[in-house]
Amino acid sequence: GNLIIHFKRYKIFADSFARQQALTSSFSGLKTTNVGITLIQESRHDSNRFFVYGRAGFGEIAFDSEIYTDRNAGLHNATVNAIAEHPQTVSSNVILLAKDNGLYRSTDSGLNWVKVESNIFDSRAVNDVHFLEVNPTNVWVATNLNIYKSTDTGQNFSNFNNNGPDDFNDPQNTEAKSIFFVSDTSRLYAAMQSGLFHSNSNGTSWSSKLTDEPNIFEISQPSGQAETLFILTDNNFLRSTSLSSDLTSSLTTITSDTLNTGDVNAIAFGTTAGVIFAASASGIFQSTDNGSSW
User: Is the pLDDT of residue 174 over 80?
Assistant: First the structure.
């Protein structure tokens, strides 16, 4: 079967496994057998708590005791694509869950779930969801039909039709795969079908940053490297080290003898600066120099 492991909010894919170890930021591994786990994410508020999604649905694991607790109450059966916890400890009981059949919200730390804006998200696959760190009343959601924003901690959403990063009049060019905030700033990046778009104003206005790289499916940044962005597309694995100025001026394609362009499905970052894991069709590779060699 296929395995998708989320390192925090980044993904690693591996194919045809009998037993797979899932690396996390705090622990060396979570051993699994044939339970079909397709997502694992460490809680940002409790390093002993891991959210998991697999054949049994959605739940959590207490890492020290290895006890699994079901958290499916109120969830309809569909793939979980992303999890977002409220960044403030005082509101850590608020969690948003992005699924193929909508967006779900919990106010009791995952004990119960309710659908959010069913009239909007029931007909959309929700690909990504994020709280704004500096003002978590603001939440952004990336779907297969446009980007949506909430200003009340994910209870109600509005469409970015009028000032979004793309031409929403083109039904073939509206899917948002991934969204990303530069920590503690108002800079927002959105990976769309037509390329990478950027906002310096929390999404109020947008500009195109990389339109010659269509079908971007993941954008991510290593901790502590505010100028660096890794970009995965259907055909390329790219890195920029000049986010605050001209992103394209330092854009390079990451290649090596063992890691081919377009061969990378997902990346994750280690706790040591410069350590990156890349999942490709030929296996999982590691770099210790920020992607220069593997």
Answer: no
Q: Which amino acid is at 25?
A: S
Calpha distance 292→162 (Å, rounded):
40
Q: Are 63 and 27 in contact (CB under 8 A)?
A: yes
pLDDT in tens, 185-216: 667 888 877 788 887 776 677 777 777 777 78
Joined together, the tokens standing for residue 229 give 């962005």
- Spatial contact of 135 and 125, defined as CB atoms under 8 Å apart: no
The whole-angstrom separation of Cα 71 and Cα 87 is 20
Strand partners, 181: 188
Helix (H/G/I), strand (E/B), else coil: 211: coil
Task: Say whether pTM exceeds 0.70.
Answer: yes
Spatial separation of the C-alpha atoms in residues 87 and 131, rounded to whole Å:
7
- How crowded is residue 30: how many other Cβ atoms within 10 Å of its Cβ? 19
Cα–Cα dist 247/244, whole Å = 7
* Local structure of 81: helix, strand or coil: strand
The DSSP-derived string for 146-186 is -EEEESSSSSS-EE-TTT-SS-TT-TTS--EEEEEE-TTSS
pLDDT of res. 98: 93
Q: Which of 82, 13, 41, 23 is nearest to 232 (CA)?
A: 13
Q: Which residue in 33, 38, 36 sits closest to 11, CA to CA?
A: 38
Specify whether the backbone of 58 is left (phi greater than 0), alpha (psi in -120 to 50) or beta: beta
**Cα 39 from Cα 218, distance rounded (Å):** 16
